[in-house]
Amino acid sequence: MKKVLKLIFSVALLLVVAVAMTACQSNNEPTPAPAATPPAADPPPAAAVNPAAELQIALVAHSPESILNDGSFNEGAWAGIMQFLGTHGLPTTNARFYQAVAADHDARFNSIIQAIDGGANVVVLPGFQFETAAYDAQVLFPDVYFITLDSTPARDGNQGLSPNVAAIHYAEEEAGFLAGYAAVMEGHRELGFMGGAPIPPVIRFGHGFIQGAEHAAQALGLSAGDVSIRYTYLGGFAPAPEHVVTASAWFMVGTEVIFAAAGGAGASVMEAALQSGGLSIGVDSDQYHVNETVLTSAMKALDVSVNDMLTDITNNAFRGGRQHNFNAAMNGVGLPMHTARFTTFTQAQYNAIFGQLASGAIVVNSSTEMSDILANVSIVDVEEM
After folding, report:
1. At residue 24, does pLDDT exceed 50?
2. What is the pTM of this model?
3. 262 and 228, same structural domain?
């Protein structure tokens, strides 16, 4: 009996020790670490915001005859729009061209509305013809940017510029000056000027042309009457057979080169030059491609000014509510020497005279009164016709 109890006690003791050892081993084992949470993936980079992409640009022409490839205002303004889109990697579909169905205020205003209804938030209006339409539209559409070229919004003679409008003007007198100077320096002595209509921009082109010819004549030491300019206005800006006849008559009596500041009517002058063996000077944009008679062109930097204003909008720095005068100091006017057909007048001579304009060493009279211009002309003989 005692042996049995002793055996039971021994077994029981062994069981207690075994349990205790198991417990100790359990307590000494490290607690398994929780499964690590995988690191969160970096968020995808935010798409780059391109403010330029938000612009939907409309170019509106003032009449059915005012085509996009007019070799003048529309074409120059469109080139500026295309430069802007290209710089920002945007499709050309971000710009659209609209034409007024008639040459009057209502048709122009309706074209502006059509452009805005079509999604445009920037509207470019080339030409003095948009004066009243821009005046009305700027108030009706305060969230739309307007860029007017050669005009300031006005109605009944009262100008008014809202903060959403930048009115671009050009120093036509400086562009005309360069054309007149170059023509005389090239060796021409019998010149002509044909303006479309006697409106301020066209008048300034002509008056600058006279002053440039006078400045060159003085520089060359010519005598009074050695240079002559026939001077007239055609009464419109559309090409017409009668303009060809008038210009041809001038060439027949000795006029060597005619500066045509006449929009589409300039093509008639260039046609007359081609038929008569004369020369012509284009206007607004580089018109060398019209025909081989185009000696040079008195250019406005339409593309530069439009591109500049669109860039301002993108940079949230739109210079609205005021007029801007693009002159030589701003590279806003000039002659396209790379396409000019000069044989005597050199790039160096052009650079010198342009530099004097840009620096203010030469100041061209911008008066629209012929008497103010002729008061300071002693060599050039001007015949108004």
Report:
1. no
2. 0.82
3. yes
